[in-house]
Amino acid sequence: MFSHRTDWKLTPNRFTQAQEELRAAGREILDLTISNPTRAELHYDAEAILQALVNPKALDYDPQPKGLLSAREAVAAYYRRQHDDVDAESIILTTSTSEGYSYLFRLLCNVEDEILVPKPSYPLFEFLADLQDVKLVPYPLLYDHGWQIDCPSLYKAVNHRTRAVVVVHPNNPTGSFVAEEERTALNNFCREYKLSLIADEVFLDYAHDGAPRPTFAANQDVLTFTLSGVSKISGLPQMKLAWIVTSGPAEAVSAALARMEVIADTYLSMNAPVQLAAPALLEQRHSIQPLLLDRVRANLNELDRALAKQKTCCRLDVEGGWYAVLRVPVTQSDEDLAIQILRKLSVLVHPGHFYDFSGDGHLIVSLITPTQDFHKGIAQVLGLLNQKEGNH
Ligand SMILES: Cc1ncc(COP(=O)(O)O)c(C=O)c1O
Asked: Which of 201, 205, 232 to mutate to test the pocket of ligand 1 (most atoms within 8 A of CB)?
């Protein structure tokens, strides 16, 4: 009765099962994986956000496939102010970055065509690809005093079915930005094989050192699609306002935009109140980004302080984003370790394999966790891991 693409294993995995068991038993879980900023005890300007949604113009229906010009201009103004010049006409609004990915997979790929994606990275890619009948081919990021794209592996992975390369800038959860020389190498690679570049920049504004990194939205060398949205930029995932910026050689850009406009016109998924509120929602970044960056830096400092007191675990270098990767002794699979931490301590951390790390020995924690919880949870996790090591 159902399509093969929806033949997912729907039973909860062991890690989810363990969480359900604990919750059913009434145990309170200390969650070090929080990625929802609206549940991270941050102060939002509730009045400004809610007022922005009450606009009499929302009583009019003005179906614009690319999204209302006023909203696209607000996105262009964000780039101009914070990053680089972007033309509002090159922007298409979507409800989420995930929807943006699905438009792009539809635009670029026939059934079974391939997209190169970084590994480790963000776990939602698999489902997005399944739904669009696209095959993901991983290219590794290697860790050696910081993360690097393994450029030779791109050349090994490419074939006649490859349509695009995805970069996540900075990547989730490794927190690594695409370096300037990597950008040049990616452009050369895409030009050589006539591929598009898809740049996911949802965490672009969260460089821990505060130094702005260049956006791909201004990349002119090859056909480039840059994805972002207010979900991370303004810490407002519930508003469902995201976008795709198209840049590159003029002819390719206008052909891509004309086709994407038809895809967007088919769904017309943007709603009026949120589009009309776009300038105000984007404005919120000025207050929420400093709070999030303060939180991230405070938690990272605390993590380093706790790690300095022991020798069993360390963390990997991180440049941006909301996560940290802990390197822990490999005595069992990451999933078993995360389950053990959950059962023994009621502390939730993510196993590295959620993000497709190539080997065991990685745990992921969210740096936007409320600071007190983070301190407490990290102390407990490191305590347990050091005790285990002592027992070996
Ligand atoms: C790298 C990356 N891209 C995209 C998203 C999803 O963004 P959106 O809420 O706009 O779909 C996330 C969410 O965590 C993410 O980590």
From this structure: 232
